[in-house]
């Protein structure tokens, strides 16, 4: 039977929700690497959906490297080394309260490697408009030092770092910032108490960027991140 547009949209949404549920179970280890998932009919009964929804959900997860459907063998859960952690949906599923500390540790390794380089490139390549945007965010941070608002600080802090990645003129760094926006927000929320965070270290980055001091921006960012040996 041919489905109309509304039914097709509902089917896609149902398949996505099922992919999310199965994906989270894979991420939690409930469906461990190397195991074979229940068949389409059984999965449909478990989750109360059609075989078509199951089939589409499996396709989604296979595209993310999480599953490998094989005829006459079944659908195998792939090892985490095959998963595409740069997939926005997979990253969102992974970033649960239970997994946050684990995700954060991996995120900080990547951030420590990339953000100082982004600051260096921004000092070299930022336009006057970029510099003005970064400086305006710094002014807003200083205002928050006098009249602190936690939610506003988190929002401004995220914007500050995203603006630096954007101003680096490196499309890969910009994409990193966009992809990990939800992780940045969750991380800043976890480290922000009832006062501004490392205000002078942020200012040191801005001063170096405005001066076009690439090395200074790199070192200032390392100082903000608490990287030893700076």
TrEMBL record:
Keywords: DNA-binding, Transcription, Transcription regulation. Residues 12-80 form the HTH gntR-type domain. The keyword DNA-binding applies. CDD domains: WHTH_GntR (cd07377). InterPro entries: GntR_C, TF_FadR/GntR_C, Tscrpt_reg_HTH_GntR, WH-like_DNA-bd_sf, WH_DNA-bd_sf. The keyword Transcription applies. GO terms for molecular function: DNA binding; DNA-binding transcription factor activity. Transmembrane segments: none annotated. Pfam families: FCD, GntR. This is FadR family transcriptional regulator. It comes from Edwardsiella ictaluri.
